[in-house]
Please model this.
Amino acid sequence: MKFDRTFRTVIVLFIILVILISSYFVQDIISKNNVASVEETDLSLTGAKLSDSTYAKMVVSGTWDSAVGVANQFDFTIFNADKYDLANWTISIQVPAGSVLDNYWGSEAELDKSTGLLVIKPTSYNNTILSDGNITFGIIVSAKEAFSPTSLHLQGYKILNNNTSLARRIVEVFIGIWAIVFIGFLVTRLNFRNYREKQKNDIKIILQSMNTFINFIDAKDPYTRGHSKRVAMYAAEIAKRMRLPEDDIQNIYYAGLLHDAGKISVPDAVLNKPGVLTKEERTMIQNHTVAGGKMLVQLSSLKGVRETALYHHERYDGSGYPDGLKGDMIPLFARIVGVADAYDAMSSNRVYRRHLNKDEIIEEIQKGAGTQFDPRIVTYMVDMINDGYVNVVKMETADNDESYGKFNLTEEDIPGVYMGF
Model:
């Protein structure tokens, strides 16, 4: 079922997401543990370069009066000139006693009043100072008077290489791709749901037309009441056992319902005549295939329905009507409905004869394999007789007085309508 395929797809996408997220955090763990050495150094803020690998720059952006005394704004840039990335860094700055931390940005900051140390820590987005890269942050500290730090203490971990950063970016890209695929999947399923709803509405319209049409056919020939529905069910089951696509199974059901549409053009007196037909009368009845083909010519949206009405009386050896088609030149739907039609005719009472028994029907159908019928389809029809499927159909379509002249096809009758989401 399509529901099962959808559920499996969601499960697969969920598993992929779990793997990607796990990979992301694994890379984070690796980056924290893949350490070459610990970096611990003092950096000058007066322009002196105390280290070849790391240096700092500070700008006093402004001072103004505050409740404590003077508010001092500083903007810092830390440069990493080393070949290694510097991860999980921490910076300590000595500030005057009694100072108050007013604000900070680009980092996390905390003032230890007992030691007078201002501790700066990274945020989630600047945890690592890349090789040949830098970070910036700023603070506002109020003190009794203006001051300017001359140095800071930096501690961090040198990463062996930057492959983990690249790997994390790759994982992030794949997570992005996953998100796009998942959104596309949801949009597709929504469109599919809307399509199915539209299809069901279309089917309701088709059913209303078919119910009216088939009631006309049944009214013409009371002896074959229910014949169209039985043929449709037999034909759809054959198609199912042949493993035809779901849409074909549904369309062949429609074709079975409408295969005798042309009988509307046959006079009642001829259609219900109990005696032997004259040549002219037989021609009239045979012409119901051509009439049906003409009636259904506009029904092109239902694949194979018109061709089935036109060719279901063709014979496999080429001796049928109306065009004498032979073998696989006869459309597949018409070959299937032809066998189903013949079975129902033999198993039903007609105005001119009683029905045949099970063994007689099997014998007649097998005798016609290769001459009247496609031998492959005969095999499926005989299996359906032997396994009792045909009896189930007859019970489901059994005539009763209340249903006479009230053929009512519903969505539940049509194969493939309820295929799930």
Summary: Strands lie at 35-44, 54-65, 70-80, 86-94, 100-105, 108-112, 117-121, 128-129, 133-143, 151-159. The chain has a mean pLDDT of 84.
